[in-house]
Specification:
With 258 residues, the protein is an alpha/beta fold. It is 39% helix and 22% strand. Bound molecules: adenosine-5'-diphosphate (ADP) and magnesium ion (MG).
């Protein structure tokens, strides 16, 4: 059992992606592994290749070269609809259907899977409780919820199939700082409670520090470094990583020799 627990759940092996037939690369020669139960944050500025990497995990994007493996499946298998639906995904920007009630939004993956309506509503309601939304929200429309609550609905929808992998693409980007913090705490709680493996995309260094077991720093399609926040702070692999982490290093007063 220990061997299984320590083996990688998700693997990137020399992965590259070109959207223009090989003229330029959005992602270049990326290799890393994600362990079961880990929270891995993909950190980088806009256009650095974070979403491209994330969407390779649930087969929305196929690599131009190299291989992505999830639970020992790769290639065409990842692109099957069934496989994609088995991985929870919170996309960039809220994608709730405004004319569908909250529970119907959450239950959408179950409807696509052909579950009967009573079971859909029951599972959707359970998922809404998991993300701490109060009773009664299920019958409202998304517009009747706050921005933070709508994001929770998005997370509930990603969890409703009972997945053990949760992909989150800048899910809290549009929210105010206080709402963001409470949702970050929620993600940490979900991880504790459900033991899910989380791959979380952000451009926000402090969000990365708050959530990550390990961080992948992306810069212009290159993986600069993978490691814990501590490793980034004390053993930056590149000038880019050193400069990126200088600010929190100063704030945390680490590295000072006084
Ligand atoms: N569907 C696409 N077609 C063409 N270029 C794309 C597409 N998606 C992303 N790109 C380009 O690939 C690069 C990386 O994009 P992306 O992975 O979305 O970065 P990030 O999520 O870090 O902002 C950017 O230069 C972007 O313009
Ligand atoms: Mg993106």
């Amino acid at each position: 059992m220990a061997e299984i627990a320590s083996s990688a759940l998700i693997r990137f092996e020399d992965v590259g992606k070109s959207y223009d037939g090989g003229q330029s690369f959005a992602v270049r020669h990326v290799s890393f592994q994600i362990a079961k139960g880990e929270t891995l944050v993909l950190l980088g500025s806009s256009g650095s290749g974070k979403s491209t990497l994330l969407k390779m995990i649930n087969g929305l994007i196929a690599p131009s070269h190299g291989a992505v493996t999830v639970r020992d499946r790769s290639g065409q298998q990842l692109q099957s609809v069934q496989m994609r639906r088995s991985i929870g995904y919170v996309s960039q920007g809220i994608a709730l259907f405004p004319f569908m009630r909250v529970w119907e939004n959450v239950a959408l993956p179950l409807r696509l899977a052909g579950l009967p309506i009573e079971e859909r509503k029951r599972k959707a309601t359970e998922a809404l409780r998991l993300v701490e939304l109060p009773e009664g929200v299920e019958d409202r429309l998304p517009s009747e919820l706050s921005g933070g609550q709508q994001q929770r609905v998005g997370v509930a929808r990603a969890l409703v199939t009972g997945t053990d992998i949760l992909l989150m693409d800048e899910p809290f980007g549009a929210l105010d700082a206080i709402t963001r913090e409470s949702l970050q705490a929620e993600v940490a709680r979900l991880k504790e409670k459900l033991g899910v493996t989380i791959v979380f995309v952000t451009h926000d260094l402090f969000e990365a520090l708050a959530l990550a077991d390990r961080i992948v720093v992306m810069h212009e399609g290159n993986m600069e470094q993978i490691g814990t926040a501590d490793e980034m702070l004390h053993q930056p692999a590149t000038d880019f990583v050193r400069e990126l982490f200088e600010k929190p290093a100063k704030l945390l007063k680490v590295g000072g020799r006084a």
